[in-house]
């Protein structure tokens, strides 16, 4: 079996588990109350075969459990709720939709419509990726990960269904492994083609393709740093930096659930404004409380009835 060797990263480990586009779509639906095979089939637009395959995978990694014909979230997948909220926040900010496709988020505890914000647990300031420093953690090493034999569908962006899908663009970007990896490396200041290529076991034409895709999406901006031959640096735009909270929640989840060798986090983050090790929670911007899945109602304009994450199977 072939293996993929990369710098140990909780983001990569998390993406190995749930970073496939269909898995992201299925979990998204589960967070908004989807729980039956038929419901998930209609909402995700997956074929029966693909849906069965991904549901089996998600059960195998203990992110879903099946009980009385319904799929339930688990403690592990509920812990991705912060990630889902930050995905929603990014998409809302950068891809406004028509009123009939819009939705509202309401926090039951304070009764307000809200926006989710990632805040530092120590100083309570919103987390900005530009003010975060990195140092190797106890689990710093290189990961050898078997290349999954699981069939990956190459789902074009246009095929990601729009119905009830509140982070379509993000699923398109993050659901592609190399694209997600390039963004994660850009947070560390990596900007040049050769440096991306040194970190990623990826074919050069694929890397070129992904850099162009991220440039087209407005996540990276290319700037020439050399004239002959012409060479570019790819820097995150503010839209790109706005993805940091999503990745930060994913990293936190990976630290917690994907530390397979038990050595601890591969990387430690320090929050610039307070100087403390960065631990963060997603909070309601109205009352400041941390957000729990069962306290959040999501209401689609055309449906009127609020949906909320289903019961979880402990
Ligand atoms: Zn802080
Ligand atoms: Zn609130």
UniProtKB/TrEMBL annotation:
Keyword match Membrane: no
Domain HTH hxlR-type: 160-262
Keywords: DNA-binding, Transcription, Transcription regulation
InterPro entries listed in its UniProt record: HTH_HxlR (IPR002577), WH-like_DNA-bd_sf (IPR036388), WH_DNA-bd_sf (IPR036390)
Region Disordered, annotated ranges: 135-154
Matching SUPFAM superfamilies: Winged helix' DNA-binding domain
Gene Ontology molecular function, alphabetical: DNA binding
Record keyword Transcription regulation present: yes
Pfam families (UniProt xref): HxlR (PF01638)
Entry-linked PANTHER family: TRANSCRIPTIONAL REGULATOR, MARR FAMILY (PTHR33204), TRANSCRIPTIONAL REGULATORY PROTEIN (PTHR33204:SF36)
The protein's name in its UniProt record: Transcriptional regulator, HxlR family
Organism from which the protein derives: Pseudohaliea rubra DSM 19751
Organism phylogeny: Bacteria, Pseudomonadati, Pseudomonadota, Gammaproteobacteria, Cellvibrionales
């Amino acid at each position: 079996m072939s293996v993929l060797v990369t710098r140990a990263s909780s983001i990569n480990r998390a993406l190995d588990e749930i970073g496939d586009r269909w898995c992201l779509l299925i979990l998204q639906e589960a967070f908004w109350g989807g729980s039956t095979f038929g419901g998930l089939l209609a909402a995700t637009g997956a074929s029966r075969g693909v849906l069965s395959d991904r549901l089996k995978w998600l059960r195998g990694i203990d992110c879903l459990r099946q009980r009385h014909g319904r799929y339930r979230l688990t403690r592990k997948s509920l812990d991705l709720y912060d990630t889902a909220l930050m995905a929603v926040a990014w998409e809302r900010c950068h891809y406004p939709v028509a009123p009939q496709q819009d939705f509202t988020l309401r926090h039951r505890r304070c009764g307000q419509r809200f926006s989710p914000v990632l805040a530092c647990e120590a100083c309570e300031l919103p987390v900005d990726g530009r003010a975060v420093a990195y140092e190797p953690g106890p689990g710093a090493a290189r990961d050898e990960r078997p290349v999954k034999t699981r069939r990956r569908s190459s789902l074009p962006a246009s095929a990601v269904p729009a119905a009830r899908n509140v982070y379509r663009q993000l699923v398109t970007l993050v659901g592609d492994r190399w694209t997600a990896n390039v963004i994660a490396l850009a947070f560390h200041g990596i900007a040049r083609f050769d440096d991306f290529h040194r970190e990623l076991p990826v074919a050069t034409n694929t890397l070129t393709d992904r850099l162009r895709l991220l440039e087209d999406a407005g996540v990276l901006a290319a700037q020439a740093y050399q004239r002959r031959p012409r060479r570019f640096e790819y820097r995150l735009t503010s839209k790109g930096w706005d993805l940091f909270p999503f990745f930060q929640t994913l990293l936190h989840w990976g630290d917690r659930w994907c530390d397979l060798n038990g050595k601890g986090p591969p990387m430690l983050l320090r929050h610039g404004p307070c100087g403390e090790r960065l631990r963060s929670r997603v909070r309601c911007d109205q009352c400041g409380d941390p957000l729990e899945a069962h306290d959040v109602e999501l209401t689609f304009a055309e449906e009127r009835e609020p949906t909320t994450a289903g019961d979880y199977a402990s």
